[in-house]
Amino acid sequence: MKMFKYIAYALIAAAACSGLTACDDDPEMPPVYYPVRTGDGSAAAPYSVGEAMMLVATGQAPKTGVFVQGVVTEVTEFNASYGNITYNITDPDGTGYEFEVYRGLGLFGEKFTDITDIKVDDHVVVYCTLTEYNGTIESNQGAQLVSLNGSEYPREVQPEAEGDGTGRNPYNVRRALQVITSDECPQGDVYIKGVVCSITEIGGSYGNATYYIQDPGYRYDQLYVYRGKGLNGANLTASSLKVGDEVVIYGPVVYYNNSTPEVTSGSILVSINGSPYETSDPIYQGLNGNADGWTVTNVSLSSDFPSDGYVWDWSNSYSALVGKAFIKNVRYATDVIISHEFDLAGVTDAHISFQHCYRYASNPAQIYTVVARETGAADWQTFTIPTFNDGTSFSFTNSGTIDLSEFDGKKVEIGFRYTSTTSDAGTWEIKNFNLYGDK
């Protein structure tokens, strides 16, 4: 096997050479050739191995998918469970660069069935994202083989990046991949549209699905959706989501491990095959980075509640508002509300949604509620939250829509009520609060 770390560092040295075809100032090092640019990474003009490696070594590699072509020099690993193979490719012109295709899949994402599915001297075109890991320049896991020994593959034209992530103008997959891998990855929930191209798992005891979406007519850019829920947070079954469905997703995104752009746990489907959904922009967004403007009201606290204790607090570690009455290994009986005042003058169809999760509580729908009252009123009205997570982990899910239209045109306080007992004092986390309405 070639010494990839040496090659990676040599490529950086080569990048510093100007106007030469080789750097041979150091007699201890063999000549290092830098490639002539002949491709642009598209389906029609794939990068050579040398080009791809030079882009990584000089910090110019695209973070989205590219096409790379080469000749197989070594097949190193086959994983039968996941159907992937790790192998090395080089340019056929003898420059010596070797690029590792790490745990790549077969033609167009199909699983390999045997290590002999790829052989030394095979000519391949691979669609992948480029990275450098511990000195090895390689593809991220999940690369797709698109051509084997000259087999034809679709030279589909990559769509333009479109959308701004709002309900009225969702990101397409191409744009979503760009913003997720940028230095300004969105911190709140966004809307993304696409076509379901594969489903890894669906249903089960948690009613979620892990799947991929792509832009219509372009199979190469795919976005990973991890454990998303169904329409408006409903459970998914094998019959409620299928390959080929056109969907709009609403949820949080992350560049996981700086290698996998994904819609992470807690997303919901807001539209399947054109079904209508909330497209208006929020008139207020909060609990996104802080809890500024939110006020705590202690309805009741047990007599032994610590004088320096509190139920509601903003956690920078979790980027969420956290309610809990389990303090220093003691459960306390509490009834505490945190609320924010809003002026809904001129607003109709007021409604809210947010991301939340709970753990260590036996009856979350009864003890964790939304409350609201007209400013100045004495009593709070209680509103049931449509959707909770399963309670086995702190996995955020969308609350679903909560109708507050009875407060249209009024000043209103909207809040969250946490109640607990000496035997049931779980943890409730809330973030990304959105207030909607027509003005």
How would you classify the helix and strand content by structural class?
Answer: mainly beta
Write out the CATH superfamily name of the largest domain: Galactose-binding domain-like
**Biggest β-sheet strands, sense, barrel:** 7 strands, mixed
Give the overall shape, derived from the CA principal axes. Answer: elongated
Let me know the number of strands.
Answer: 28
Query: What is the averaged pLDDT score?
Result: 88
In words, what does this structure look like?
The chain is mainly beta and 439 residues long. It has three domains: 4-148, OB fold (Dihydrolipoamide Acetyltransferase, E2P); 173-272, Nucleic acid-binding proteins (OB fold (Dihydrolipoamide Acetyltransferase, E2P)); 284-438, Galactose-binding domain-like (Jelly Rolls, Sandwich). Helix content is 8%, strand content 41%. It is built from four helices and 28 strands. The protein has helices at residues 4-16, 49-57, 173-180, 364-367; strands at 66-79, 84-90, 98-107, 123-128, 130-133, 136-139, 144-148, 190-203, 208-214, 222-228, 246-251, 253-256, 260-263, 268-272, 284-286, 295-301, 312-315, 320-324, 326-327, 330-331, 334-343, 348-359, 368-374, 381-383, 397-398, 402-403, 411-420, 427-438. The strands form six sheets. Strands 12-13-10-9-8-11-14 form a seven-stranded mixed sheet, covered by helices on one side. Strands 15, 17, 18, 22, 25, 26 and 28 form a seven-stranded antiparallel sheet that branches. Strand 1 and strand 2 (84-90) form a beta hairpin. The longest helix is centred in the first third of the chain and has 13 residues, at 4-16. The termini are far apart. Mean pLDDT is 88; it is low at 1-9, 12-22 and 29-33.
